[in-house]
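INTERNAL AUDIT FORM
Audit reference: QA-55
Scope: verify that the stored structure record matches its stored sequence.
Auditor: D.O.
Record contents follow.
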Amino acid sequence: MKTIIKLALASALALSLAACQSAPTKSLNDANMAIKSAISANGKAKKMYVEWRDTGKLLKKARKAKGKGDFDKAVKLAGKAERQAINAVAQAKAQKHVKPRI
């Protein structure tokens, strides 16, 4: 019985220590690359005049987070902006031949 309790405590300790490890943080280079990629994708959307409303705001927030040294947040926001830009272009292409229904 004591062996089972010791084993359970050891397992619980091992799991709690594993849970305490933080995820790897992003670097300045990661943030720069993510923002550059988002700007490039958004440039394509702007050329087609289909930029979504919040994409520019997200890029601005990403740059601000990078300036404050919060690289994880900057990468996350830049990724969201890039996805929005890609989706805006895809939406424009998908709805290129849509006509009003009367």
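Auditor finding: record pair retrieved intact. The CA atoms of residues 1 and 94 lie 66 Å apart.
Action required: none
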